Amino acid sequence: MPGSAHGLRKAGATRAAENGATVAQLEAIYGWTGGKMASLYTRQADRAKLAREAMGKLGREKT
Predict the structure, then answer these.
(1) Quick check: is 49 in a domain?
(2) Does some domain include residue 63?
(3) How many domains does the structure of the chain reveal?
């Protein structure tokens, strides 16, 4: 399998966060503590979700 262990962890954490995993859940899955790493992934996922939602509002006309 190509890639590094880090790359696989990053892909997994990204996917889990995008599917709604919480900081506590990511810490449990990956053995992280302190919330710093898990928060990185959840913040990125939250920002992407907010951007998608906001883009949908750009095309709507106010009635």
Answers:
(1) yes
(2) no
(3) 1
